[in-house]
Design brief:
Purple Acid Phosphatase, chain A, domain 2, eight-stranded mixed β-sheet, six-stranded mixed β-sheet, about 25% helix, about 30% strand, globular, binds fe (ii) ion
Length: about 270
């Protein structure tokens, strides 16, 4: 079994400082094989904010993979935003904007959907997706393939903003090439399974995780997701902050089984 912690939208610089230690303690106790961070590490892409985010991640004592979010681009420096939009992220967080990581029999592919020409929206770039499709077709056919992206490929009910350019085309290409799961953030809103129910099966299992730490006014449901993957099953549990105890605690997991090209909800 492979255990992965999905963290997203940390927003260091505009974050709940009181939740940093409880988050660290919870992840250490879980002892995952990998921590995945799907963007918005920082609030404003400042060097000190990247330093704080990376100190937190390095302090977890486990391997992690990162991709940028729209907040990891400089907002108030138009020259940097245009000429070297990912310079601050590359210097402060990670050089690779599209990392690929294998852990156990799970392969994770990161794409970079942050776009200097949009303030909040993003774009799934076709060249990145083509490379992933090639790798999927050339790679082992028996493992679990997970896409990690900041902007969701499908917006849940109530969020129909059309914020991710190329989302539909990319979803179709990746599904046809053998992608099984999508982890995303950005919405600061939870949705595990996105449309998969007792009666509806879907080829792509989408897990949209809420913010772990953002302290913007109105933010709620802080937490992270723990995935437990076996050959053809995946269990996903939200770990939510219990405000009265300053502690992250697990909800019962949702289970999904993959068979004949589709995911079904497990009892
Ligand atoms: Fe965010
Ligand atoms: Fe975002």
């Amino acid at each position: 079994m492979t255990r992965i912690v999905h963290l997203t939208d940390l927003h260091f610089g505009l974050h709940r400082t009181d939740l940093v230690e409880p988050l660290r303690a919870a992840i250490r106790d879980i002892a995952p094989d990998l921590v995945v961070v799907s963007g918005d590490l920082t609030q404003r892409a400042r060097a000190g904010q990247f330093r704080a985010a990376m100190a937190f991640l390095r302090g977890l004592g486990v391997g992690f993979m990162l991709i940028p979010g729209n907040h990891d681009l400089p907002l108030f420096n138009p020259l940097a935003r245009l000429l070297n939009p990912f310079g601050a992220y590359r210097r402060g967080a990670a050089r690779d904007l599209t990392p690929v990581v294998q852990v156990g029999r799970v392969r994770l592919f990161g794409i970079n959907t942050a776009d200097p020409f949009q303030w909040r929206g993003g774009v799934a770039r076709m060249d990145q997706v083509a490379r992933i499709c090639q790798a999927l077709q050339a790679g082992p056919q028996d493992g679990l393939n997970i896409l990690v992206c900041h902007h969701p490929l499908e917006e849940p009910p109530g969020f129909e903003r059309g914020e991710t350019q190329n989302a539909l085309e990319v979803t179709q290409k990746l599904t046809a090439a053998g992608m099984h799961v999508v982890l995303s953030g950005h919405l600061h809103h939870w949705n595990i399974g996105l449309g998969i129910s007792d009666t509806v099966a879907r080829p792509l299992l989408q897990i949209q995780t809420g913010t772990a730490l953002c302290s913007r006014i109105g933010e709620r449901d802080h937490g992270f997701c723990v995935l437990e993957a076996e050959a053809t099953t995946l269990r996903a549990a939200r770990w939510m902050v219990a405000e009265d105890r300053a502690q992250f605690l697990p909800d019962p997991p949702a289970g999904f089984g993959y068979q004949a090209g589709v995911w079904r909800k497990l009892p």
